[in-house]
């Protein structure tokens, strides 16, 4: 027995807001803090808190750049974050596809 795919879900990524952040970042090389905030539809403070959790886990890098005289915060997934996201999504897909054998297909007990 290989175990249910839920055992491969990543607790850090699984929270809905963090999942949304990581999904948004997985679609791009990097993104401006404000663009992620708007895409995920949360406040600056909520995004900051969730990004700190993702950064602590090693999933997100936070960088600073300048746009004229204004500082800009840029977010990007690390390679580990991208791998964790892909594995998490694969486990979700397995769960969604249903891993329950049909009647008559179950092994004899």
Written description of the protein model:
- This protein is α+β, with helices and mostly antiparallel strands and 109 residues long.
- 50% of the residues lie in helices and 17% in strands.
- The protein has 5 helices and 3 strands.
- Strands 1-3-2 form a 3-stranded antiparallel sheet.
- α2 packs across α3.
- The longest helix is centred in the last third of the chain and has 19 residues, at 79-97.
- The model has no long low-confidence stretch (mean pLDDT 91).
Write the layout of secondary structure elements.
Elements: H1 11-14, H2 16-26, E1 31-32, H3 33-40, H4 44-56, E2 60-67, E3 70-77, H5 79-97
Antiparallel strand pairs: 1-3, 2-3
Helix pairs in contact: 2-3
Task: Give a quick precis of the structure.
The protein is α+β, with helices and mostly antiparallel strands. The protein has helices at 11-14, 16-26, 33-40, 44-56, 79-97, and strands at 31-32, 60-67, 70-77.
- Net shape: elongated
Uncertain parts: none
Counting helices, strands and paired strands, the structural category is: alpha+beta
In spatial order, strands of the major sheet run 1-3-2
* Topology, number of strands: 3
Estimate the helix proportion, in percent.
40-55%
Main β sheet profile: 3 strands, antiparallel
Radius of gyration computed on alpha carbons? 18 Å
Number of helices: 5
The SSE string, one letter per element, is HHEHHEEH
Percent of residues in β-strands: 15-25%
List the defining traits of the structure above.
alpha+beta, 3 strands, 109 residues
């Amino acid at each position: 027995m290989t175990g249910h795919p839920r055992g491969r879900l990543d607790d850090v990524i699984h929270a809905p807001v963090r999942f949304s952040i990581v999904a948004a970042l997985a679609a791009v090389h990097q993104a401006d803090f404000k663009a992620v905030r708007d895409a995920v539809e949360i406040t600056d403070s909520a995004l900051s808190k969730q990004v700190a959790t993702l950064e602590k886990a090693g999933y997100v890098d936070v960088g600073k750049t300048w746009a004229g005289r204004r500082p800009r915060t840029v977010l990007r997934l690390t390679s580990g974050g991208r791998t964790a996201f892909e594995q998490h999504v694969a486990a979700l897909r397995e769960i969604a596809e249903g891993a329950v054998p049909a009647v008559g297909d179950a092994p004899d007990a």
